[in-house]
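From the methods appendix. Each design record in this collection lists the tokenized structure first, followed by the designed amino acid sequence. Records were kept in a plain field format so they could be parsed without special tools. The example shown here is representative of the layout used throughout.

RECORD:
FOLD TOKENS (405 positions):
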């Protein structure tokens, strides 16, 4: 069966991926992470995360896929010693110097998408350099991927959901030009996602129109829409890709939980042989759920054609509002005691997140204050029945429609 690989930026996200049945999780560590601004995990925490993953029969891959200079390589060797001791399942890597050093360890090496792999001959070369799996370039079509897979001497992995980069395989220098920040070392400030005005040399503003409906496009002219391949899971599985990768190491735990859960269900449905029968209704449900979390509008990337020109701003349908914290959990009756610092009503939807809990979404069907049923509370200690398991000090958020915020 194809492997489902989920992203994580912190312990909460790791738990969210595990609890929603990802087969493996990938994280970044300080100094060698392409999400340096928001998704660093201290190497000292990797040991516990490995144990958590292995206890749940999951794999942990560690990203060390930045471009580095000589003065960073000595430290990298020391970090590798620790990662080898912690028994991580693979390194995701792209720099040739780092590959040379990493080959001295026993850790399997997976080639990052940053390497921009587009042909079989490159895979043959990288196999000789110790690579056992490669993440193929996002710029390939499904036809290209199938051709490569048939002849590939190593496993292949492709992105199936999440952000797309305007630069080829993420090799971008806009942040360097504008902000003196190195995107290839994880410091991308995403100037491509901003709104831009396009003017001619005569200082006339040029208006872009959408060829699909002749509407005026927004001014995010450098920002691709997000990839979403959930309705094409049959094509992807039949292509014999070894692993499906979900983008999102900068995203919170509820994003990881939602996206992982949808793709897990889709993969399992196809493998069960019931895709034709059940997918029409389930696809509507999955697309609605995927649209509820952060996204810039969806497209299929380069799998079938050139992507649509531009994205939108965040099109998520809800936001999280911080409303409280779990102070106790009574496991026998599945009731959480929650200290609220905001208002909550019956039929509201809450999200509970914690390092071990991951991210759980619950609809509030009943509440009690001092043993008395209530329909609405504000800034009180309240008891709420929970379907899952939560823990003391977990954070509680209310799911609020964007239009209501």
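DESIGN:
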């Amino acid at each position: 069966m194809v492997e489902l690989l989920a992203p994580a930026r912190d312990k909460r996200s790791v738990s969210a991926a595990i609890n929603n049945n990802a087969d493996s999780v990938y994280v970044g560590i300080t100094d060698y992470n392409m999400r340096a601004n928001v998704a660093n995990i201290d190497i000292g925490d990797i040991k516990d995360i490995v144990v958590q993953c292995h206890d749940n029969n999951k794999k942990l891959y560690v990203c060390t896929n930045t471009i580095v200079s000589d003065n960073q390589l000595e430290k990298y060797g020391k970090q590798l010693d620790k990662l080898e001791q912690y028994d991580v399942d693979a390194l995701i890597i792209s720099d040739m110097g780092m590959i040379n050093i990493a080959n001295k360890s026993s850790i399997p090496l997976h080639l990052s998408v940053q390497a921009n792999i587009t042909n079989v001959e490159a895979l043959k070369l990288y196999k000789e350099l110790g690579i056992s799996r490669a993440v193929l370039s996002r710029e390939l079509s499904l036809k290209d991927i199938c051709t490569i897979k048939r002849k590939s001497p190593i496993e292949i992995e492709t992105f199936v959901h999440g952000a797309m980069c305007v630069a080829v395989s993420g090799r971008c220098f806009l942040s360097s030009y504008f902000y003196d920040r190195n995107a290839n070392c994880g410091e991308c400030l995403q100037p491509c996602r901003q709104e831009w005005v396009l003017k001619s040399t005569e200082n006339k503003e040029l208006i872009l129109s959408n060829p699909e409906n002749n509407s005026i496009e927004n001014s995010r002219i450098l920002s691709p829409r997000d990839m979403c391949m959930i309705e094409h899971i049959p094509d992807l599985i039949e292509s014999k890709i070894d692993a499906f990768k979900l983008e999102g190491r900068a995203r919170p735990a509820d994003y990881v939980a939602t996206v992982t859960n949808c793709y897990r269900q889709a993969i399992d449905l196809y493998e069960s042989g019931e895709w034709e029968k059940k997918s029409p209704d389930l696809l509507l449900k999955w697309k609605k759920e995927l649209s509820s979390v952060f996204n810039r509008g969806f497209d299929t990337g380069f799998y079938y054609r050139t992507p649509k020109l531009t994205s939108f701003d965040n099109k998520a349908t809800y936001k999280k509002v911080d409303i409280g914290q779990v102070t106790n959990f009574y496991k026998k009756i599945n009731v959480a005691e929650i200290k609220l610092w905001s208002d909550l009503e019956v039929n509201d939807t809450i999200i509970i997140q914690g390092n071990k809990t991951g991210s759980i979404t619950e609809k509030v069907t009943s509440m009690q204050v001092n043993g008395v049923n209530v329909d609405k509370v504000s800034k009180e200690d309240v008891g709420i029945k929970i379907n899952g398991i939560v823990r003391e000090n977990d954070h509680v958020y209310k799911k609020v429609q964007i239009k209501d915020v």
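APPENDIX NOTE: The chain has ten helices and 21 strands.
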